């Protein structure tokens, strides 16, 4: 009988991968496959849905989706298309109340509430409803459209009269860019705007934004009493120009001076604004020597041709008080402002009457 050599080891072959040198228990590929199968089974087990069983006779479903910009009134009722039964949380609404087989109710978010009982709401000022559930802790009063259909109610067309509220009138007033009520009424009568309802804009209350955006300056009342007692006490001065068309002497500006007591007017044409001071200085000196009296006051606007160092030094040396009209208020120097308009109208009429070109 042959004897095996002690140095020779038995050759091992893996029955999983077919390689020699190891067995299946120690095979790396076999271990990887086993781990993957275990992970898959654990994942399936963890993701398996959980099933809960309830007795259907004791559950009534209701999905609530109610939003409101105002606080809920405890006496208001709301139509709900997903509510299975009429329900309320106020026991004072019921004219009769009995025990209900269903003991709890499940809302759309999964919360449960206890059903105390059911009955009929037949009180004055409340809708007449049958088979209404009294739910503990329910804030809103819900009318089930599904239950109304089950009880035989159907949709019907109803003719309603158009009612206009002050809030709706004010809303259209703002949509139409704050038009006045009389203007909107005229537009409504002729049906000039598509979609504008028939509203009574006579009930339009005063809009707080309209006075702030539409206010205008009040008219200055004319003063017929002269504020001066002798000539050269006050001179009104203004600069006209630049004119759109040059004169034959290439003049585009005119210095207008009006004496307040007599309203006598002097007009001096100049080429540029820079000549204003020289022209006024010459005119003032001439008037003081001619009338043998000094000038008391002069009134101008805040134009740079009048409000400058040369004018200030001249008035100080001659003892003339220089008055300025308030900014953006030409009415304070209205004597010469109105004379400017009179002069322009006179020139325009004479040119038109003699059929002369505008250069004249």
Automatic annotation (TrEMBL):
Pfam families: gag_pre-integrs, Pol_BBD, rve
Listed GO MF terms: nucleic acid binding; peptidase activity; zinc ion binding
Domain (CCHC-type) ranges: 14-27
Domain (Integrase catalytic) ranges: 218-360
Biological processes annotated in GO: DNA integration; proteolysis
Superkingdom field: Eukaryota
Family matches, as Gene3D superfamilies: Ribonuclease H-like superfamily/Ribonuclease H
Keywords assigned by UniProt, alphabetized: Hydrolase, Metal-binding, Protease, Zinc, Zinc-finger
Cross-referenced SUPFAM superfamilies: Ribonuclease H-like (SSF53098)
Family matches, as PANTHER family: CYSTEINE-RICH RLK (RECEPTOR-LIKE PROTEIN KINASE) 8, TRANSPOSASE, PUTATIVE-RELATED
Listed name of the protein: Gag-pol polyprotein
Organism: Cucumis melo var. makuwa
């Amino acid at each position: 009988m042959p004897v095996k050599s002690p140095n020779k080891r038995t050759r091992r072959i893996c029955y999983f991968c077919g390689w020699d040198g190891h067995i299946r228990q120690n095979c790396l590929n076999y271990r990887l496959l086993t781990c993957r199968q275990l992970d898959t089974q654990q994942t399936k087990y963890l993701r398996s849905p959980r099933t809960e069983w309830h007795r259907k006779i004791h559950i009534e479903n209701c999905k609530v989706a109610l939003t409101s910009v105002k606080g809920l009134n405890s006496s208001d009722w709301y139509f709900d298309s997903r509510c299975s039964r009429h329900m309320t949380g106020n026991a004072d609404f019921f004219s009769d109340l009995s025990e209900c087989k269903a003991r709890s109710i499940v809302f759309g978010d999964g919360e449960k509430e206890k059903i105390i009982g059911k009955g009929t709401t037949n009180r004055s000022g409340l809708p007449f409803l049958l088979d209404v559930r009294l739910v503990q802790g329910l804030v809103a009063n819900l009318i089930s459209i599904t239950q109304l259909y089950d009880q035989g109610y159907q949709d019907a067309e109803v003719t309603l009269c158009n009612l206009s509220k002050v809030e709706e009138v004010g809303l259209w007033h703002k949509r139409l860019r704050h038009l006045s009520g009389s203007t909107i009424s005229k537009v409504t009568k002729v049906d000039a705007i598509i979609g504008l309802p028939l509203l009574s804009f006579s009930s339009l209350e005063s809009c707080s934004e309209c006075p702030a955006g539409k206010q205008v300056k009040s008219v200055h009342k004319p003063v017929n009493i002269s504020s001066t007692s002798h000539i050269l006490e006050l001179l009104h001065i203004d600069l006209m120009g630049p004119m759109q068309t040059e004169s034959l002497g290439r003049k585009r500006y005119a210095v207008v001076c009006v004496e307040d007591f007599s309203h006598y007017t002097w007009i001096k044409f100049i080429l540029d604004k820079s000549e204003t001071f020289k022209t006024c200085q010459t005119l003032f000196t001439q008037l003081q020597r001619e009338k043998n009296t000094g000038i008391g006051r002069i009134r101008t606007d805040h134009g740079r041709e009048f409000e400058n160092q040369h004018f200030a030094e001249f008035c100080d040396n001659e003892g003339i008080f220089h008055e300025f009209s308030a900014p953006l208020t030409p009415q304070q120097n209205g004597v010469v402002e109105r004379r400017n308009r009179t002069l322009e109208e006179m020139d325009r009429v004479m040119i038109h009457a003699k059929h002369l070109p505008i250069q004249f």
